[in-house]
Amino acid sequence: MTAAALPDAVCEVFDRFVTTEYTTIDGHGQPITWPVTPYHHRDEGCIDVTTGLGYPKKAYDARANPKVALLFSDPTGSGLEGPPMVLVQGTASFDDRDLDANRERYWEESTVKLPATKKMHPPKLLRGAFGWYYTRLYVHVRPERVYVWPNGDVTTQPELLDSHMEEVRSGHDEEPDVPLEAPEGGTAAWDGRMDELGERYPTGVLSIVSPDGFPFSVRIPIEVERGERLVRAGAGAVGVPVHPGRACLTVHDHGPNFEWQRNFQVRGDLIERDGAWVLVPHRLVGGFELPPGSMLSRYRLNFSKMRRYRKIAKRELAKR
Question: For residue 274, what pLDDT is reported?
Fold first, then answer.
């Protein structure tokens, strides 16, 4: 799908959104969603995302299963008023051919996309100690199918912009169905941060695997039932190919200039209960966060993660 096939309003979302919710599917059939920075290349007809060598799973999962999704649902910092919510289901290709070039590319692209973050980077002399972060792996996403919700309204059917012409002619998805993982089962697990769901985060990004094997993500209202240890998902949302199975609920927020950012995800089973869809949580996973506060407090918060990331990056480099 080329930029010429997409409305200007959609391309503007790709160009100006600070974050996109990027979903991969791991080897267990679990969808995993993290907020990342998108880099839209109109001429090439692709959207690139990237991750550090010290936390490469985002890229390696896409290499193993190239069916990925990008949801553009949080306009914070974009300067756009009432933009659509856009879901891209696409095919990923993995780029680690020249890590030195990737590192330089990331430094240039990220400072153009997020100029306010330039002062947050360590001095150049110390940057080598952060190779786990600055040495980058890139994922190129070629859109195969694009869903658009005008004004981000999930209570209306999304518009489908599709590169598969046979689907456009027939009006439905022609991709063959694939076997989907059943709910994992087991008891619910609760983490104290889950209390932020519905309070700090009244909406979240729910990701599932569609019958055709592509991830499907949508931002929906969420409500926590702490006593029952479950999360009620998406009252009023339509057009979602919902079914019992493994799911991921991701929440995040960031400053308008990306001067701070927080995120975590809850993985569990999506099941139907009393005529409504609920998420039974099994695991909370925290991401790499830079919450509001001093740089010293951020280093303290992330010290153990940074040590782990450095070890992973060292191991990855040793393989090459």
Answer: 86
pLDDT in tens, 68-94: 999 999 999 999 999 999 999 999 999
- Contact, 262 vs 254, CB < 8 A? yes
Residues 48 and 95: their CA atoms lie apart, in Å, by: 10
> What gap in Å lies between CA 19 and CA 248, rounded to an integer?
18
Q: Which residues contact 112 (CB under 8 A, 6 or more apart)?
A: none
When comparing pLDDT for 214 and 199, which is higher? 214
Cα 95 to Cα 143, 149, 154, 248, distances in angstroms? 17, 31, 34, 26
For residue 105, pLDDT beyond 60: yes
The reported pLDDT for the residue numbered 2 is 52
Phi, psi dihedrals of residue 220, rounded to the nearest 5°? -135, 160
What does the DSSP 8-state code read for residue 130?
Answer: G
| Residue closest to 127 by CA, chosen among 138, 135, 116, 117 | 135
**What's the length of the chain?**
320
Contact in structure between 236 and 261 (CB atoms under 8 Å): no
Percentages helix, strand, coil for the chain, rounded to the nearest 5?
A: 30, 35, 35
Walk me through the domains of the chain, giving residue ranges and CATH numbers: 3-318 (2.30.110.10)
Single out the residue of 118, 22, 133 nearest to residue 74, CA to CA: 22
DSSP assignment letter at 294: -
Residue 77 and residue 115: Cα distance in Å, rounded? 12
Phi-psi map region of 33: left, alpha, beta (phi>0 left; psi -120 to 50 alpha): beta
Using the predicted structure, report yes or no on whether residue 127 has a pLDDT greater than 80: no
Task: Report pLDDT digits (tens) over 15-37.
Answer: 999 999 999 999 999 999 999 99
Considering only CA atoms, which of 178, 308, 319 is closest in space to residue 241? Answer: 178
